[in-house]
Amino acid sequence: MGHPQAEAINILSGVLNELFGGDVAIKSELRRCAHVCRILGWSQRLTRFQNELDGYPDAADLPWYRKSVRGCTEWQVTGGIYTVVDTVVEDAYCSEKSPPKHVEMDLRAGIDWILSATQSGYFESTGRKSSRHIRFRNKDVETEERNVYDGRAFQTVIKNIENDVFDFASKSYAVLGYGDAVQDVWQAFRAKVEECLVPLGFGNHLDAIRSGLNSLNPQEWRNAMWSCRDILHDLATHLWRDQRDIYEYLPGQGRNGKLRVTESDYVNRLGAYLHQKGIAGRLGAYLRAEMERVYHSIITLNELDSKAHGEITLLDARVAAIGTYMILGEIATRTDMRAVTTYSDPQVSAEPGQ
After folding, report:
1. Is 205 part of any domain?
2. Other CB atoms closer than 10 Å to residue 292's CB: what's the count?
3. How many CA atoms does the CB half-sphere of 114 hold within 13 Å?
4. CA-to-CA distance for 124 and 345, rounded, in angstroms?
């Protein structure tokens, strides 16, 4: 293991320990993660951490948690503390109050500004001015319209930054710390998967995944994620050809509490296929659960990306690909890859994995 990698693992371990302990100095954690990216040459993620520290330029895309931070528009008095006190007293006797008018802002400020705003909130004048009559003082006071943001809105932003830092540190620590072992497993699964699936016509999907993982283009990472989903869908269509929409021998959310295996339920179809091939018991349940996990992970990441609530990273694409290949490798290794055209009672007397 090279010196930069060992240094990065040590730094990430410290970041995770502090995050697990709950005593988080977020500015320090951002700097440490930025240093990890710098020594490893992860330029895209380095830019992200630098922007979190120093603020996002106008041309930079914001992460979802910095978009549309919510506040409200209020008319507030000017003219010193005594005038404010008079207005508060007046409000106590006022029976008619206007409903709040909500407003949103995109937050580009650096971490120091946000931390300050968590304590005192933030307001900005809209430029509109008016006057207000205080009846019990029988005087008029000047007011101005302000967009007001409570400190709790910025506390939420800080919490999401902490979650992002944790996600980065956790995934990066796993990749760096266990990368050699994972690489051996990955290569073994890749070889078996490609040996079995390329002759069946799935080479295009595998090429798209491999091309995406080798690219520096975020759009190619998205394509790799979609290809992970598509190959599971198309393999299910290839392996499960029974025309019934319910599989009677596994529980599920279909009719009479049985497993639904329509064309859109391709994860269920793969689970039913494994069950028909004798993969039952704890092993069968584990593989079905793992397929569900990978499926929901891919769908969730793509939904977040399409709604501009997040962005798919190369690490996301790699994790999805590893999970997908693991599933494909298990199917290729443990079955004959022959399609089920009509299912029947598997009549398992001794379930594997029990």
Report:
1. yes
2. 13
3. 27
4. 70
Other CB atoms within a 10 A radius of the CB of residue 222 amount to: 19
b/e 266-277 (16+ beta carbons within 10 angstroms → b): bbbbbbbbbbbb
Tell me, yes or no, whether 207 and 296 share the same domain. yes
Give me the phi and psi of 73, to 5 degrees please.
-95, 130
Domain count within the chain = 2
* Least reliable range by pLDDT among 54-58, 75-79, 125-129, 238-242: 75-79
Angle between helix axes 218-239 and 314-334 (nearest 10 degrees) is 20
Report DSSP letters for 14-30, one per residue: HHHHHHHHT---HHHHH
Between helices 151-197 and 314-334, what is the axis angle to 10°? 40
pLDDT, tens digit (0-9, with 9 covering 90-100), for 105-159: 999 999 999 999 999 899 888 888 876 655 545 566 677 788 889 999 999 999 9
Based on the domain organization, do 243 and 314 belong to the same domain? yes
Q: Does 16 map to a domain?
A: no
Place of tokens 């190369």: 314
209 and 146 belong to one structural domain: no
Domain range enclosing 221 = 201-334
Whether 330 and 264 map to the same domain: the answer is yes
Question: In Å, how far are 194, 204, 209, 306 from 239, measured between CA atoms?
Answer: 16, 18, 21, 30
**Spatial separation of the C-alpha atoms in residues 114 and 65, rounded to whole Å:** 13
Q: Which residues contact 37 (CB under 8 A, 6 or more apart)?
A: 43, 45, 46, 49
Strand partners, 133: 140
Could you tell me if 249 and 323 are in contact, meaning their C-beta atoms sit under 8 angstroms apart?
no
Spatial distance between the Cα atoms of 297 and 324, rounded to a whole number of angstroms: 11
Is 255 in contact with 248 (CB distance < 8 Å)? no
Q: Is the pTM of this model over 0.70?
A: no
287-327 residue pLDDT tens: 667 666 655 655 665 554 454 445 677 777 877 787 788 78
In a domain, 35, yes or no: no
Within-domain flag for 310: yes
